[in-house]
TrEMBL record:
Belongs to the Lgt family. Residues 274-293 are annotated as: Disordered. The keyword Glycosyltransferase applies. InterPro entries: Lgt. Keywords: Cell membrane, Glycosyltransferase, Membrane, Transferase, Transmembrane, Transmembrane helix. Its main location: membrane. Pathway: Protein modification; lipoprotein biosynthesis (diacylglyceryl transfer). Residues 282-293 have a biased composition (Acidic residues). It comes from the Bacteria. Its EC number is 2.5.1.145. A 1,2-diacyl-sn-glycero-3-phospho-(1'-sn-glycerol) binds at R144. It comes from Cellulomonas septica. This is Phosphatidylglycerol--prolipoprotein diacylglyceryl transferase. GO terms for molecular function: glycosyltransferase activity.
Amino acid sequence: MSAAVLASIPSPPQGVWHLGPFPVRAYAIAILLGIVAALWMTRRRWAERGGDPDTVLEISFWAVPFGIVGGRIYHVITSPQAYFGEGGDPVRALFIWEGGLGIWGAVAFGAVGAWIGCRRQGVRLAPFADALAPGLLVAQAIGRLGNWFNQELFGGPTTLPWGLQIDDAHLPAGFESGTLFHPTFLYEILWNLAGAAVLVWADRRFKLGHGRVFWLYVVIYTTGRLWIELVRIDPANTILGLRVNVWTSIIVGLGALVAFVVVGRRHPGRDTTLLLAPPTAQDDEESTSEAAR
């Protein structure tokens, strides 16, 4: 065995375990652990901004289901052949646990769910999104472990010492057994964790608010996703020779950069209130009276 193989990254031998008749999938576990991590971080950050941490859980009851459904819809729309093409099975479009969630759909639909949750809780979406942003990157980092277990979405062949081993059963057509591939799951994990650290630092250093932490999250993620997407070799639909997700990264990233700059000029500093309707003097008097009783 060569030195390169000795230094390579092995793929997990399996991604599914069975508890009796029930399958336990590493992909689903990774997604759930990512959600838990994001909620824990957001609760802490929301409390630091003066909010009630329990509000985060209430909002998540809307944001998380919307995000999962949106992520699946985006995946199916951008990769329809597996479900509606020749030999495809439309019913499998519903099998989220098998893998296949598009981050853009998850963020877009999740934002709608978060907006609904924020309205119901009487808080503003922008500061909540700022509190959530670093946790999103951590959740995405953890979720990429599911791709590692599934032996999917890896990059092109490489001779680097951190090349990824892929079992013959998952080997793309045209490649010999033993070929090593770029571990794009690991690249994105490291990029996302570094990005989360940058967001926390920038937020504390520059007192970002009014949604600017969230827009910076989009800029950081799209920048990383752009070059990582160019490394991947899994089948994907293209426009003008570039993968759909490359174009999405460019367009969304530029839009987020513009939003970050414009919002910063219009609303420098942190939000003055987290509430949709700030308490009035009459509310303060009523609260004082209640406390005195």
